[in-house]
Amino acid sequence: MPKITIDDRPIEVASGTTIIQAADTLGLFIPHYCYHPGLPVAGSCRMCLVEVEKAPKLQIACYTFVTDVMVVRTTTPQVATARAAILEFLLANHPLDCPVCDQAGECKLQEFYMQFGRYDSTLLEDKTKKHKQLPVGPHIMLDSERCILCSRCTRFVDDITHTHELGIFNRGVHSELLPVDGAAVDNAYSGCLADVCPVGALTDRDFRFKVRVWYLDKTDSVCHGCARGCNIEIHTNRRRNHHNDGKLIARYKPRFNAQVNGYWMCDAGRYSYKQIESPDRFLQPRVRGADGRVQVCDWSTALAAVDESVTRAIAAHGVSSAAVIATPDLSNEELWAVRRLCRDGMKIPTVACRCPADPRGVEDNLLRKADTFPNSFGAQRILEATTESELTVASVLQAAASGRIRLLFVLGGGLTERVDPAHLQQALAQVDLVVAIQSHHSILTDLATMALPASTYAETEGTITNFTGQVQRYWPAIPPLEESKPLLDILAQLANRWELPFTPREPELCFAELAGQVEYFAGLSYRVLGWEGVNPSQRTTSKSTA
Amino acid sequence: MLKLVTKNVGIENSHTLSVARSHGAYSRLEAAFAMTPEALTAEVIKSNLRGLGGAGFPAGRKWSFLPKDSPKPRYLVVNGDEGEPGTCKDKIIMIHDPHLLIEGIIITCWAIQSHKAFIYIRGEYDLPVEHVEQAIVEAKAAGILGETVMGHDFALDIVVHRGAGAYICGEETALLESLEGKRGWPRLKPPFPAVEGYMRCPTVVNNVETLSYVPYVVEMGAQPFADLGSERNGGLRMYSISGRVNRPGVYELPMGTPLREMIYDHAQGVTGGRALKAVIPGGSSAPILTPDEIDVPMDFDSLAKRGTMLGSAGVIVFDETVSMVEALKVIIRFYAHESCGQCTPCREGTAWLEKIVERILDLGGRPGDVDNMLRISRNIMGNTICPFGDGAALPVVSCVTKFRPEFEAWVRRGQPVTTLPVREAHIGEPVAAV
Q1: pLDDT tens digit string along B279-303?
Q2: Out of 3.40.50.740, 3.40.50.1360, 1.10.3430.10, 2.40.50.150, which CATH number does the structure's domain A286-545 have?
Q3: Which residues make up the CATH 3.40.50.11540 domain(s) of chain B?
Q4: What is the pLDDT of residues B198-221, one digit of tens each?
């Protein structure tokens, strides 16, 4: 392995490593525009020029491979001059419209100018004019004048999505990024273009002008859009209430995880943040009175009503007539609480989590999975570990339709998208008591005898297990909306009332209990999971092969 | 005077197979096939034949860089994208003696064991394309090209590819990209074309003129060929002399012929007996020389020692009436227009320099403009993907440095004055008189 020194710091790296990668492992930052670790090297921005001993001129760190005893310097006057020169060139035809540019605050031109530029402009010439504010797709707005032609976006559509919608046209200073043959940039990952663009050339049409980025807070989370579980950051606006249309969540951004999603996420996941604060959110407990009329009530009334009617129903018909549908929309902790309360505590034999496939599910060989539930893997490990047969939701609904079920709990969302509404309505009509704990309005909350508002993943803490078995943490980005409560709280309160086995309300403690009881999660804890998660299935296979 | 590649220029129908054969075309093939590829390559290395497209890299050594054990096919790509301003030599060969080029290609392909060659010809070159394509058709019909070249167990096909008119496609890796059907952007190196060239296969890229001398290396033998030129610069080469001379044209002269002799003997002196002001010795990318610097042998190494380059040997002569600011404007406008736009310094720098020169000529010069031009040029140099950046910056640096008072004078004229001179009246006038 070549031994090199970068700025007098020695390091040994594998051959085939570039200087920029070696510097990264040392924690040394070399400024760059066109280089992106998830894309092929272009070597065109020339921002990462560094001094390599014995080389006749400066070398680009992104495409210079280390050789033994190489000596690299990144802080010499020549390097500083080159960096400032490149910035001067990049800004020569840049409109300098930061005050009205949505990228301001997360723009690499701004950042590097302050860090490495700081020259006095000598430019007296007119700037080259190009296309402004050109919508190139449903999610992406192009401003060609701000473009520095780093070609990250064209490499993304060429090498990641293979959709080739963008190209660079014309020559020299008139070179311009444009859609190829007027194509719309409407691939399933187009939002990533706004992420890879280091400047304000490609911006997210959804996020544009909503809120200045320096007002945003960032919370690590995991996308709940499909079984992939892409790692994301939830960007929230809590400091400027009048911005972002008064909403808390401003956007999702992908968070790097080599095991799961790399640097990317799909558009469906990216814009799924809208579901969190959507008008469809179910936010007040509701109880259907004896007269059949639905009444909004407070939590103590609702819980008392659930307590009383469930106790009555079980006393009258026995637990064998009760059933629980817990969709894989729920976290590992919530599913564990469901198992503890409903199966272990209330002794309800029928706890189903296998829903019909989502007709909207799309699968490709990049990220998207046809299974649009985030936690099917975990749900099956937690709920089906103790039963021999695989209970399906369809069979539960069939039993309900034939009148064999008198008490039905429906926990977690996603059911109404997967089951024919008429069929669902028909089945629920045969059930005496339907208790729905839901985060969103649906015919379920309309038809339920009692409906309790649950918080979503953005408001709670927990873990989900993706389709490969990767157990990943997510953190609460915003407080529970209005009257909604985390499902763990709701279940714990019910367990308290019924004096049944107590599940901790704290997700971390709940997970610790789960890890002690379900084999798949053995040895895991929030501390072990960390920011990137752990895949026990890979851990065991690597052990067995070792 | 000895002529080799221009020997047949002026002979009627010299581009047809029958005429070409009667003047020696394909007569060197048997001797070449009698040699092993290794011996042939060694012979070309010994002949000191340099790459005549501009870089001057020894041709035989380039061939020897092909990996010996690669299972991939090998290609020969012939660079006929002659675009360097002041250069018009390759088209002479392609128009008048395309069979000589084909003979050179066959010998080279034998030496590098390639069975497919591409001739990439500049898009504007209609007649050269016509003649080369016609020559290939004739050669195929005569069994000179095809499955068995001249009856030897060696197959060779030649494909003509027309460029679309971009200067940058003369840069060998941009040419390969263009040949592959992509945008003509130079590649990052390494890998060099010898390792990964056309379609990522081992490829030799040689200039039309270089390959046309290969038959003569075989005919004359390496040492006699090398002896024609100067030290380490074998043979003859074609010098395109243009500008303010009495007899502009393409001259085939020994490597190392002094520049003074070229201008005053072969080109018969400066137009109108005027004084010489400056000479660009090797195409517009080469740093400019002043009259006291022209006693220099015109070969790669001698010019490199003088801080300029032989390049494509496009000699451009300026007389005392030429405004160097106007001249530089023409040059830098070309580079700004032809910059491919891939990497930052060249894309932005050339356009910026063009704007500054134009502003100075529009009498909008400001103090500091001249220094700024030097600074911008130096920020381009050495910081780009391909040599284009240096090729655009070097003439600016040399021109501005050597004729600085002239630039300063134009800048001063841009300062507020009571009466502004009419710009047209000063074009071509000696600036000293202003």
Answers
A1: 999 999 999 999 999 999 999 999 9
A2: 3.40.50.740
A3: 17-227
A4: 999 999 999 999 999 999 999 999
DSSP letter (8 states) at residue B434 = -
Across residues A275-290, what is the average pLDDT? 94
Contact status, residue B376 vs residue B384, Cβ threshold 8 Å: no
Which residues on B lie below 8 Å from A49 (Cβ)? 383
The CA–CA distances, whole Å, from B59 to A260, B28, B54, B65, B228 equal 51, 18, 12, 10, 17
Cα(A512)–Cα(B281) distance, integer angstroms: 80
Quote the CA–CA distance of B2 and B4 in Å, as a whole number.
Answer: 7
Minimum CA–CA partner of B167 in chain A: A171
Q: In whole angstroms, what is the distance from residue B342 CA to residue B185 CA?
A: 7
Q: Minimal CA–CA distance to A464: which of A538, A382, A353, A386?
A: A382
Whole-number average pLDDT of chain A = 94
Q: Indicate whether A292 pLDDT > 90.
A: no
What CATH topology corresponds to B17-227? Answer: Rossmann fold (3.40.50)
Q: What pLDDT, on a 0 to 100 scale, did the predictor assign at position B415?
A: 63
CATH fold label, A3-75: Ubiquitin-like (UB roll) (3.10.20)
Query: What distance in Å separates the CA atoms of residue A500 and residue A404, rounded to the nearest whole number?
Result: 25
Could you tell me the two tokens for B183?
């945008």
- C-alpha–C-alpha distance, residues B185 and B170, integer Å: 11
Distance CA A212, CA A104 (A): 8
Cβ contact (<8 Å) for B382 and A58? Answer: yes
> What is the pTM assigned to this prediction?
0.93
Chain B residues near residue A89 by CB distance under 8 angstroms: 344-345, 347-349, 352, 379
- Location of each CATH 3.10.20.600 domain in chain B: 236-319
The token pair at A383 is: 């709920």
Yes or no: is domain A124-275 CATH 3.30.70.20? yes
In chain A, domain spans: 3-75, 124-275, 286-545
Task: Say yes or no for a CB contact (<8 Å) between B166 and A171.
Answer: yes
Supply the mean pLDDT for chain B.
Answer: 94
**Range list for CATH 1.20.1440.230 in chain B:** 324-413
B232 sits in the region (left: phi over 0; alpha: psi -120 to 50; else beta) called: left
Over the stretch B321-377, which tens digit does the pLDDT of each residue have? 999 999 999 999 999 999 999 999 999 999 999 999 999 999 999 989 999 999 999
| Cα separation, B265 vs B298, whole angstroms | 14
Q: Are strands A71-73 and A166-169 parallel, antiparallel or unpaired?
A: unpaired
Question: What's the gap in Å between the CA of B393 and the closest CA on chain A?
Answer: 14
Task: Provide CATH code, domain B324-413.
Answer: 1.20.1440.230
User: What residue ranges in A260-319 does DSSP mark as E strands?
Assistant: 286-288, 294-296
CA separation, residue B51 to residues A43, B44, B59, B237 (Å): 27, 11, 5, 10
Class of domain B236-319: alpha beta
Share of chain B above pLDDT 90, in %: 94
Backbone angles phi, psi at A403, to 5 degrees: 85, 10
| Mutate which: A18, A19, A33, A44, vs B, most B CBs within 10 A | A44
- Is the CB of residue B274 less than 8 Å from the CB of residue B319? yes
The answer to whether A515 and A483 are in contact (CB under 8 A) is: no
Strands A3-6 and A286-288: unpaired
Q: Do A85 and B379 touch (CB under 8 A)?
A: yes
With CB atoms and an 8 Å threshold, state whether B347 touches A128: no
Span A157-173, mean pLDDT? 96
Which position has the token pair 């069929």?
A: A423
Q: Confidence class of residue A387 from pLDDT cuts 50, 70 and 90?
A: low
